[in-house]
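Regression test attached.
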Amino acid sequence: MSQNYPYFVARDRAWQPAQYTPGYKTSVSRSPRQALVSIQNASPSERSGPVFHNLDMGQHDNDLLMNFRTEGSQAGLPIGERIVVHGRVIDQFGKPVPNTLVEMWQANAGGRYRHKKDSYLAPLDPNFGGVGRCMTDADGRYRFRTVRPGPYPWPNGINTWRPAHIHVSVMGPSISTRLITQMYFEGDPLVPLCPIVQVLKDPEAVETMIARLDMAMSKPMDYLAYRFDVVVRGALQTYFEE
Amino acid sequence: MYSQYKSQDETGLLRETASQTAGPFVHIGLALEIAGFESRSDEIWQDLAKENAEGEHIELVGSVYDGNGDLVHDALIEIWQADSHGNYVADFDNKKPFSGFGRSACAMDGDFYFNTIKPGQVDFDGKSMAPHINIAIFARGINLHLQTRAYFDDEETANEDCPILNRVPSPVRRKTLIAVKESNNGKPRYRFDIHLQGDDETVFFDF
């Protein structure tokens, strides 16, 4: 049985980061030395992928101001800059990608992750977990409410700091479109200094990861908004497939 | 508009959003129990097959090694596979006997783990691909996830005829894609170790 899965525009691996990027030290021992083997004519294995409309979402799964609460005297809202992060998932032809899973995770306002392996001395926030997920709507739109994450130091160079960022994971229509990236904030002076950002050769590629302040979608006296659109590989029509 | 999207290639196509490493704390977002989090009502995790799932029940386990031969303790692994009839079922649903997608992570002991069924052969181009599981590897130090396939060492004939496996130019390197059968108290278990670099480097695909 052969289903008519789409083909996808080839991934431009000169635009995407190389695997071996010695400025980002961990990549040195974790990058293949052999060439990738190209599957010139993708099979149904690569052209298909999971959809998650039957995944049970909790009421606050996309609201990080509400989805991690402490009991007792510390109960309340997380500390930090209240923001909405929203945007669209579209493909390279500008077509919306509806009903696709968008997941995100981040540090708290002080740059500390709620992960047992993060030992940075900035404290945890008792009312902040740092994880969210949602499905895009029929127009490819998604939305999270959170606090703006803080920058944090990490052991790469002697004094290396990550810019404020939110990790963003998108599935898209197939495992070919699967993408994990990081969203940065417009105007952050740490962005050009970061070895992980610098794995990209083209400054235009860096721009694709920078969310824009979106005053129109902010709520007066409540939260600011940032807009972050994600572009996944374009789905091609298959008129000539036998 | 407020979109950051201006970037187009020479044909006018929008550029794909740039990839970045999933980083050391990927588990917070995609593998909550490894991060020490409480699970949400419904999670995407490593049990693809319930007891009543059709097909041969197997485990897929493995470790990830870096170029020094050291274990990678912070990788996230995603798999995508056909059902026992060789059909891809897109609907992920933890209430159904089988879903074709799952996630696992190399926890402190180094192994990833999946409880699944052995996939059937998938038709392609008038041929049949040998049973295989598509694998994506995300981790700190990996800028763009790596894509590979696990085949099965007890499918020798099908492997020899597999149109995709035969695209790997080096027959020696094809062996890095073959999971090795073991037994876990009578349950078939296949070990698929991934070597990111160096001797025995796993074949990674571009598609």
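Expected vs. actual: identical. The radius of gyration of chain A is 19 Å.
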